[in-house]
C-alpha cells in the first residue's frame, strides 16, 4: 500500500469514527434492526455471523438473538495479524471472555463456518465498498469463504456512515448489501 493511500485511509477512518459517534445513541438502532431482520428473513436457519458491538458500532444483538432460535449464530474471533477470522457459536447468555480489541468471545468455542455475515464498518459507499478498522480481517475472511462456497456479507451501519467514495485496495472485498436505519442497499454481482 502506498504512503498516500495509507494516509487517505487514516484520514477517512478518523472522519468516519466521528460521523458514527454522532449517530450512535440517538435512537436509530431499532429502525435499523427492523430492516436487518427483513433482509435476513430469507436466510433464517443458515449459519450466520453477527458481531458484538464495541465503541459506537450499531447493535445487531437483538436480531442475532432472534435468529439463534432458528439456526447457528456465531461471532468473529480475531487471531493473529494476517489471518482470517474464525467464528465461534454464540447464544444469548452464553459464557463470554474478553478477546482482542475489546471484543467478547464465547468462553468455550464451538467453531462454525458462516454462510451469511453481518459486517461492522466505519464507512461505506453506494457501490458496496466498506472501510473497516484497517486490519484486513474481514477482507481476508470473505475472500477465503467465497472461494469455498457462496457467502453473503451485509454491512450494518448508520446512514451517517455513507460517503461518496472510499480509498480502496484490490484486496478490499465488496458487500452484497448494506442495511441502515432508513435504507437497504443491494449490490448485484457482475455477470
UniProtKB/TrEMBL annotation:
Keywords: ATP-binding, Ligase, Magnesium, Metal-binding, Nucleotide-binding. The keyword Phosphoprotein does not apply. This is 5-formyltetrahydrofolate cyclo-ligase. The keyword Iron does not apply. One of its GO terms (molecular function) is 5-formyltetrahydrofolate cyclo-ligase activity. Its cofactor is Mg(2+). Its EC number is 6.3.3.2. It catalyses: (6S)-5-formyl-5,6,7,8-tetrahydrofolate + ATP = (6R)-5,10-methenyltetrahydrofolate + ADP + phosphate. Belongs to the 5-formyltetrahydrofolate cyclo-ligase family. It is an enzyme of class 6 (ligase). InterPro entries: FTHF_cligase.
Amino acid at each position: 500500500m502506498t504512503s498516500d493511500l495509507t494516509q487517505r485511509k487514516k484520514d477517512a477512518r478518523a472522519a468516519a469514527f466521528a460521523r458514527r459517534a454522532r449517530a450512535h445513541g440517538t435512537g436509530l438502532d431499532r429502525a435499523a434492526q427492523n430492516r436487518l431482520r427483513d433482509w435476513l428473513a430469507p436466510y433464517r436457519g443458515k449459519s450466520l455471523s453477527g458481531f458484538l458491538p464495541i465503541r459506537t458500532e450499531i447493535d445487531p444483538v437483538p436480531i442475532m438473538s432472534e435468529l439463534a432460535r432458528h439456526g447457528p449464530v456465531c461471532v468473529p474471533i480475531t487471531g493473529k495479524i494476517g489471518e482470517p477470522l474464525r467464528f465461534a457459536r454464540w447464544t444469548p447468555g452464553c459464557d463470554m471472555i474478553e478477546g482482542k480489541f475489546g471484543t467478547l468471545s464465547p468462553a468455550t468455542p464451538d467453531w462454525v463456518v458462516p454462510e451469511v455475515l453481518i459486517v461492522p464498518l466505519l464507512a461505506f459507499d453506494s457501490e458496496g465498498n466498506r472501510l473497516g478498522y484497517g486490519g484486513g480481517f474481514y477482507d481476508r475472511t470473505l475472500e477465503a469463504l467465497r472461494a469455498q462456497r457462496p457467502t453473503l456479507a451485509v454491512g450494518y451501519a448508520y446512514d451517517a456512515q455513507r460517503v461518496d467514495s472510499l480509498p480502496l485496495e484490490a484486496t478490499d472485498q465488496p458487500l452484497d448489501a448494506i442495511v441502515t436505519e432508513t435504507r437497504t442497499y443491494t449490490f448485484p454481482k457482475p455477470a
